[in-house]
């Protein structure tokens, strides 16, 4: 028996499919998992359409510029890069973790939200003066995309746009990037921080102060509910900057 998937029509519904995992892959990281979107064809269709429309709108705003290459970042950027390239009539070029690309390459070492890595690009994949759009699933601290920007400029080309499905706005990755930044969805990390604060408040509570006990246990319950899968909805309702779709240009 096959279960029908819910029909997804707008990007707000797509956002609700993204699952959040505290302390993965390491403590303190709130991991945003995009793969549930890929289990629902209408959600994937909606997301890809948004991505393509946003890139086309950008190109038009810049005086109908021609984007020559879409650079996708290893590995989740590869889920979006080729489709975007096809729709923009551009070539697709991968930036890969070190040791995966044959021929002459250039490398760049960088730091990301949970560790350090080396990125690599084939030296002849992008030509001097070409206009490049970099696409990735997620912008966190900006280390990964900044490495890609560096590789593209080493080859004499120009990054005209960095495009992301998700931006973790509190991590301020955009401050590290040079080219304009567009993201489809934005998440704040404040709920995770709120949970940590609540945990420490529970330890500090004065036993006979019933009023603050009630308030703090209410807050604890709310955070508990949010952790049990309601995080995204709560973020919509609670914070204006987290509403999507989200289009921002770097200042
Ligand atoms: O902004 P940053 O702090 O640099 O983090 C963002 C990067 O981290 C993740 O990639 P990861 O290296 O985990 O690779 P994956 O796509 O292969 O899972 C994500 O897909 C971005 O590329
Ligand atoms: N918090 C996060 N969730 C998913 N992917 C990530 N890559 C870097 N930080 C991430």
UniProtKB/TrEMBL annotation:
Major localization listed first in the record, in broad terms: cytoplasm
Region (Disordered): 232-251
Biased composition (Polar residues): 232-242
Biological source species: Smittium megazygosporum
Keyword RNA-binding: no
PANTHER family, per database record: ADENINE PHOSPHORIBOSYLTRANSFERASE (PTHR32315)
EC number: 2.4.2.7
Family assignment from sequence similarity: Belongs to the purine/pyrimidine phosphoribosyltransferase family.
Broad enzyme group: transferase
Domain of life the protein comes from: Eukaryota
An annotated GO cellular component: cytoplasm
Subcellular location per the Swiss-Prot or TrEMBL entry: Cytoplasm
One GO BP annotation of this record: adenine salvage
Summary of the function given for this chain in its UniProt record: Catalyzes a salvage reaction resulting in the formation of AMP, that is energically less costly than de novo synthesis.
Catalysed reactions listed for this entry: AMP + diphosphate = 5-phospho-alpha-D-ribose 1-diphosphate + adenine
Pathway given in the UniProt record: Purine metabolism; AMP biosynthesis via salvage pathway; AMP from adenine: step 1/1
The protein's name in its UniProt record: adenine phosphoribosyltransferase
Keyword annotations of the record: Cytoplasm, Glycosyltransferase, Purine salvage, Transferase
Phosphoribosyltransferase domain segment(s): 54-158
Annotated Pfam families: Pribosyltran
GO molecular function, one term: adenine phosphoribosyltransferase activity
């Amino acid at each position: 028996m096959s279960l029908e998937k819910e029909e997804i029509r707008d990007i707000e519904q797509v956002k609700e499919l993204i699952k959040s995992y505290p302390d993965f892959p390491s403590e303190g990281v709130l991991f945003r998992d995009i793969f549930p979107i890929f289990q629902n064809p209408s959600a994937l269709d909606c997301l890809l359409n948004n991505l393509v429309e946003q890139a086309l709108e950008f190109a038009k705003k810049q005086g109908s510029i021609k984007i020559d290459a879409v650079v996708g970042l290893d590995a989740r950027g590869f889920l979006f890069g080729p489709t975007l390239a096809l729709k923009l009539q551009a070539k697709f070029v991968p930036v890969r973790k070190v040791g995966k690309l044959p021929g002459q390459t250039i490398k760049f070492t960088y730091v990301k939200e949970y560790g350090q890595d080396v990125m690599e690009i084939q030296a002849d994949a992008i030509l001097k003066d070409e206009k490049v759009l970099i696409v990735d699933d997620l912008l966190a601290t900006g280390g990964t995309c900044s490495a890609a920007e560096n590789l593209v400029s080493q080859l004499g080309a120009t990054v005209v746009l960095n495009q992301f499905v998700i931006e973790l706005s509190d991590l301020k990755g955009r401050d590290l990037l040079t080219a304009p930044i567009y993201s489809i969805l934005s998440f704040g990390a404040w709920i995770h921080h709120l949970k940590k604060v609540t945990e420490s408040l529970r330890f500090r509570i004065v036993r006979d102060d019933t009023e603050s006990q009630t308030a703090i246990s209410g807050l604890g319950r709310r955070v508990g509910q949010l952790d049990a899968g309601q995080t995204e909805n709560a973020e919509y309702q609670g914070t204006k900057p987290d509403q999507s779709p989200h289009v921002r240009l770097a200042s």
